[in-house]
Amino acid sequence: MTDQIQRPGPQAAVDTGGTFTDIGIRDSDGVLRVWKVPSTPSAPDEAVLKGLTEGLDRQNSSPAELSRLIHGTTVATNTVLTRTGARVGLLTNTGFRDILAIAHQARPSIYDGRATRTAPLIPDELIVEVDERMGPDGEIITELTEDAVRTVASQIRELKLDALVVSFLNAYVDTQHEDLAVRVLRDLDAAPLISAATDVTSEMREYDRTSTAAINSYVRPGVSAYMDRLVTGVKDLDVASPLWVMQSNGGLLDPDSASTHSARTVLSGLAGGVVGAANWAKSLNLKHVVSFDIGGTSTDIALIRDGQPDETMAGEIDSLPMRLPSVDVHTIGAGGGSIAWTDSGGSLRVGPHSAGADPGPISYGKGGVDLTVTDAHLVLGRLGSELLGGRFELDYAAAHKRMVEFGDKLGMSAEDCAEGIVKVITVTMARGIRAVSVERGVDVRACHLMAFGGAGPLHGADLSHELGMASAVIPPLPGIASAVGMLDAPVRRDYATPVRAEDADGLEGLKRDFEKMAEQARADAEVDGMEHHLFVDARYIGQSTELTIEWKKDWDEQRELFDSAHEERYGFRDPDAAMEIAVARLSAIAPQEDRPFASPGPASDHIEPDGHRDVYVDGEWVKTPIYDRSAFGAGTVIPGPAVINQFDTTTYVRPEQQCRCDDTGFLHLTEKEQK
């Protein structure tokens, strides 16, 4: 009897957005299918389970067949942004209760005397001090006693906290005092959840470390309750696969770890798109790619080099620092819902404020009164009157009427006004692209723009043309790219140890630190075969920030790697300055098995448009063919101008460009060859 090959079951990813929850399902042959359901902000798990069930039903699959289930959540993100988290207290050193309020030297707007910082998550009245002091080298200056902790326990209990953070100066060098305080306070039931800052991040910089721990405790009860409900719901559906949660670093975490280390999920949703863009860039052999994800309110931009997204060890949310590894995303207030307005001088401005999903753009017909970028695209003819395959209708008449009124104030026609709105938002977005390319030492003209999100393909053509980029690349399912990108994310855990190495002799200590982290990683491993990747944070002595680079066992090799990284990032190297290593890092990553892309099939000699529509381009109406993307095959080439429709987005091609479909279904927008 011939042995039959057992094909792996379908994989599913669910990404929760503000308006829709996106579901991406990939079968064993690489065929991707998508589904969208309205999000349920008060109970996000309801939309996740409903969308997953409906998406599988549409392709005649069952939850029991799933070989992988991944979720990108916005619970932690929204909790911080809306300030609806837990009542968190802080126990810190005597005299240092203002550590969160004072923060660091960076200012929101250095020349604006009215600018204020974002309020800390822990208010002053919930901060308690205790006599304790440890020096920068771990020497005990003031011993922390159990009696001192017991004395403050009753004060903490009276605050009726949901969670308590214990953060002492220099505890990253020696955690014994934080550990003692946590143990005693837990024994005395001072608060329901008590954690040491060093359990969240053990790196130096007291403000950043305390802020990270505060964020973790602030979102932890909500994330934990959400994970409990979701895990129960997934079990009730008889899902065969374990549930994995997307974390900010582009890797996956199990629900129990996400419940405890909740701050690691703060950038969960946007990381999925960056991971997807990185994998696609690698598959397409694109050296430099700018990941460009446009939603309704904001645009998330990231640089990808040789298939690897830039990472940062010092991210932030709502201006609050998080000392945790995350994809290095530059977010700007520009999206489909960005509102057009005039400033005090009468000039046209767009964003950063947004109409959001409710009421949304005027064309949504939900009571919106402010013109948005989406309304401008509709008036220009780039968008038709229907979205989502006819499930969502746009009100052209209402958008055009308001555009006429707005244009009259500026002395412009409705069409010129709409084109002006698009051009203004293009300049804003172009600045964001330069921030992750030119400002990091990369020539933007050598970059490819990976445009996705609901509105990304509408803007890709304009931006690649404006900046002279190599091309704009549109994935097969750009509207749910974050969900699709999660399908290829690896299981990952990160570890960090503060160190001090200023010469070759210090490398021996680093080897011991790496082995300790490796032992911990092996103990924590959720899956077999996790590979360990070693890095260090290095700097010239006297600098206040570091660069994270691969670890080299030879000091001279390490120094050359750092000098090269510094020159690429800042434009120079300093051969006279001494180098020091401040942090040792280990990333444990489970290799992800590649699944093939489904080919769109061979191209026909000629594809006919579904129809034509007048599109306003550079001051005049141009009769423009409208195509259905499902008709494109491998090798299909169409000249611009063109509009390409699909279920989850609309792609616009400028007159100077052409669009080519490759053998994996990606669209490549490039400038036409000059004759």
Describe the overall structure:
Residues 593-612 are annotated as: Disordered. InterPro entries: ACX-like_C, Hydant_A_N, Hydantoinase_A, Oxoprolinase-like. Residues 528-671 form the Acetophenone carboxylase-like C-terminal domain. Residues 13-186 form the Hydantoinase/oxoprolinase N-terminal domain. This protein is α+β, with helices and mostly antiparallel strands and 675 residues long. It folds into 6 domains: 11-80 and 223-265, ATPase, nucleotide binding domain (Nucleotidyltransferase, domain 5, 2-Layer Sandwich); 85-218, 3-Layer(aba) Sandwich (Rossmann fold), CATH 3.40.50; 278-335 and 425-486, ATPase, nucleotide binding domain (Nucleotidyltransferase, domain 5, 2-Layer Sandwich), CATH 3.30.420; 338-424, no CATH class; 492-589, Dna Ligase, domain 1 (2-Layer Sandwich), CATH 3.30.1490; 611-671, no CATH class. The strands form 10 sheets. Strands 13, 14, 15, 20, 25, 26, 33, 36 and 37 form a 9-stranded mixed β-sheet that branches. Strand 5, helix 3 and strand 6 (127-130) form a beta-alpha-beta unit. The protein starts with 10 loop residues before the first strand and ends with a strand. Residues 1-6 have low confidence and may be disordered.
The percent range for strand residues is 25-35%
CATH fold category name of the largest domain:
Rossmann fold
Q: Give the helix level as a range of percent.
A: 25-40%
- Name the CATH class of the largest domain: Alpha Beta
